[in-house]
Amino acid sequence: MFIRLTKEQHQMMISDIQTFFSQERDEEISEFSAERVLDFVKESLAPHFYNAAISDVKHVVEQQYASMEDEILTLERPIK
């Protein structure tokens, strides 16, 4: 899966990964190592989050469509 990040986003994520390792694991990692972690997340984990988001969006759109359909049906005029 191809994810485009701006240089600023990429650098912020690298920094966040380094901060995480420092605070949570008491381990200092290089920028290169942090980039490898980011690559792993993008390649292996991000597709799961992406697919979950797509599923959520599909559910919201279906609900909105059903609501819109109900609203349209209320516009029907009775036939005598």
Describe it.
Helix 1 crosses helix 2 (31-73). This protein is mainly alpha-helical. The protein is built from two helices and no strands. It has one domain.
Question: What are the main properties of this structure?
Answer:
80 residues, 2 helices
Number of strands: 0
Q: Helix and strand succession?
A: HH
Shape: rod-shaped
Binned, the helix content reads over 70%
Major sheet attributes: none
Low-confidence stretches: none
Average pLDDT over all residues: 94
Distance between the termini: 58 Å
Helical stretch tally: 2
Structural class by secondary-structure content: mainly alpha
Sheet-strand content, in percent, reads under 5%
Number of domains: 1
Q: What is the alpha-carbon Rg in Å? A: 23 Å
